[in-house]
Amino acid sequence: MMITRVSVVLLGLCMATVALAQMSRPVYERIPSGIMAQWQWSTAPGEHWTEFRDIEQSDTWKPVRIGTSAPYPNEIRPTDQYRWPFIWATEDIEAGKAVYFRRILHVDGQVKAATLRLCSYGDETVVYLNGEQLLELDKPGTLTTVDITGRLRDGSNSLAVAAIRGARNFGLLVMGEAELTWPPTQLKWITTDKLDERESADVPRAADPQGKPAPAWTTSSAAMPIGSSLESMYVVPRGWSFAEPGLSLEWRGTSYATVQPPGGMPEYSTAYFRASFSTGGAVTRTQLLILGDDGYEVYVNGCPVAVEKRVDRAYIPLRVDVTEYMHGGNQLNTIAAQVTNDWGPGRIHIQPTVTICF
After folding, report:
1. Separation between Cα atoms, residue 132 and residue 234, nearest integer Å
2. Cα–Cα–Cα angle for 300, 357, 78, rounded to 5 degrees
3. pLDDT tens-digit series, residues 73-112
4. Euclidean distance between CA atoms 299 and 328, whole angstroms
5. Which domain holds residue 141?
6. Residues 121 and 108 sit within 8 Å (Cβ to Cβ)
7. Distance between CA 259 and CA 51 in Å, rounded?
8. Has residue 13 been placed in a domain?
9. Is the dihedral of CA 147, 288, 33, 188 positive or negative?
10. Does residue 128 sit in the same domain as residue 266?
């Protein structure tokens, strides 16, 4: 009997140890295959291949192979090794022959910071951004980091790489990270003071069709075509109009830009706001900064993320992490807010800041 009890105790300790080890493991997140699949390769790229003038798919450009046996440099952390795979051509390239890679990155916000980390096993590698040479790599298998904050532009950016196939390992590793933000006056906010029956109805959320339904006016499942701008495809629904800049909100010496319905909000009224944007890459972190006048309810892709009904607290900046509710790549993200005004000018400040990998 004593042996049985000891065995049970030991078994319990082993199970607890295993559970603790599993909890302490780092959480690895791989970049979605759809992001990496935006890379293409060719051996006959054409005259303007670094500028991505021929955005449409052609016979000379093909999807890349994702993952090779090339070893990672020691400086790259295991989490990043898991996140970013090497890419290469899907066909055998002879040693000494050139192979070309390209992808397009759509930037739909202000770039606060952006870097590229690159490792190539080509004997020679040249990297271009928007048609201009960015750097040359002549040491296969080494890691190079470059700041591209001032080089990314609003809209479509072309990233292109030419590499000479080495005699041994082969593979190209491009690890891009950027922090983007959208001030309220940059987003295309639309607003209405009345929802119709269809907009008020609950619908399944695009991110979680099996989860709790969301009001239709707070969601969007549209995707942005590569190379298009959000403004060019934005259609204002009937009964809605573009919001206008409102009076700034002040908090401890800092001024926060706001938006309001055309002509402002009457006292004791309610207004609905909505804006959409895409990130262009895999989202690793998203934070909203919110201030309201007066009360507000805020949604991200149909998910409620913030509620403030106390007038005396609405002016205080609220920072909310909404990473888990975000869509990556060219998928649209929708921020929606219901704002109530008791007295004075009704307005709202919502500013998303997003960190992406590409």
Report:
1. 31
2. 120
3. 999 999 899 889 999 999 999 999 999 999 999 888 899 9
4. 17
5. 33-178
6. no
7. 37
8. no
9. negative
10. no
